[in-house]
What we know:
Blueprint (H helix, E strand, L loop, with lengths): L2 H23 L9 H11 L3 E3 H10 L19 E3 L5 E4 L1 H15 L10 H11 L4 H4 L5
Antiparallel strand pairs: 1-3, 2-3
Amino acid sequence: MPRGDVAKLLDEIEARVAQLRVIVASPAGPVAPDLGERVLADVLTRGGSVGRKELYEIAESHGMDRRGLGGFFRETGQKSLMDLPGTDRIVLTPYGAERAQRHLNRQRATPYETVEPNLSRVAEASFAEDWNSEGDAAYDDL
Length: 142
């Protein structure tokens, strides 16, 4: 490989490394919950069926413009919502209900209970007192 090509390659590598350093150095914010899943979860908690006006109000309460709701009704891929023929009602599809339930399950997940911080100190002290006992002497030669 000619020296000029190597120099160009090294310059390109250094530029990419600089870009990666910027990405790594930038603080990662909290992951925002999926806005669509929040809307679908509200529809599910209201029985899985809402009126068109009520859907607009749900979307607005989550900061979503009503024009963004069109993605829920798309014909390609998986539809999350569909019009109930002959009515003004919007219903969740099985896919939409699954997404909504997944969101609700994440919201209900309980974190681990707080552990008593001094409990380990108590356990360590009793273990230390027993360290040189006759019963533990059997393990000294292992």
